[in-house]
């Protein structure tokens, strides 16, 4: 038996795949390589280059392998770009989920861990977010992730009429950083760590959007969680579902206190040895001062905890950036 990891060649997905391997659990990967990298996945892991909207590819995987469950990470993940590309976003994230759930039902696969997003909350009324906070997504990306959660809920309800039904949980998180392996790095053109590193590598000065927020140092405070910690909890969720444990429908994977953008910049300067003072740009419209999630429920059920401090997050990410592979 094996777990199917969709998007398993991506930055987060590849860490999840290796976390499964550490636990001795076989995996199969599907990824269209639109943002992932074939070199992130070991040649020993069965790999299908395809999109999850491709029913024929999914059918071949479920028919050709004994799939026990699914970790669904594949999707279009750029909230800002989703505003300009809503139809593409919904196709990848909503139609993709429908295709996956249909194939799972056709092949009697009844366990799924969904990589959701804290973008489902939108701009919360409070700086500390719990799973009870109202969901008010503000982008097609956030909306598509919330719809994915609804699809899981409704499919579980429908399939439970004639049996145990679909068993599922969704994991919501904010900014994923760091690296667990020197050959796995974040290559997103939209995320803070890669953006800052590229500025420094190219001899430019990183910048902060606004330093007059009502926070301790005036810059925005956000959750930053290490990708290896995240991967550990994805696998813990899969193992819990396999063991038949009851899980919450949604978990936040949060730090509980967060880090400011200036703290990140200071850590980058200290770790890289590149002395710089970030430029200050105007605030970006709509940026809340603080969004931080608690992780208490996930700590209780999914082995969630912050195992890395900010310096370790930056150091691991910088090491991976320094060992850029030629094929990237």
From TrEMBL:
Q: What is its cofactor?
A: NAD(+)
Magnesium among keywords: no
State the pathway, as annotated in the record. Carbohydrate metabolism; galactose metabolism
Pinpoint the NAD-dependent epimerase/dehydratase domain residues: 3-254
UniProt-listed SUPFAM superfamilies? NAD(P)-binding Rossmann-fold domains
Q: Which domain of life is it from?
A: Bacteria
Q: Which reaction does it catalyse?
A: UDP-alpha-D-glucose = UDP-alpha-D-galactose
Q: What is its EC number?
A: 5.1.3.2
Q: How would you classify this enzyme at the top EC level?
A: isomerase
Statement: the UniProt record of this protein carries the keyword DNA damage: no
Per its UniProt record, what Pfam families does this chain match? Answer: Epimerase
Q: Which InterPro entries match?
A: Epimerase_deHydtase, NAD(P)-bd_dom_sf, UDP_G4E
Keywords assigned:
Carbohydrate metabolism, Isomerase, NAD
Q: Which family does it belong to?
A: Belongs to the NAD(P)-dependent epimerase/dehydratase family.
- Which named protein is this? UDP-glucose 4-epimerase
Where does this protein come from, organism-wise? Microlunatus ginsengisoli
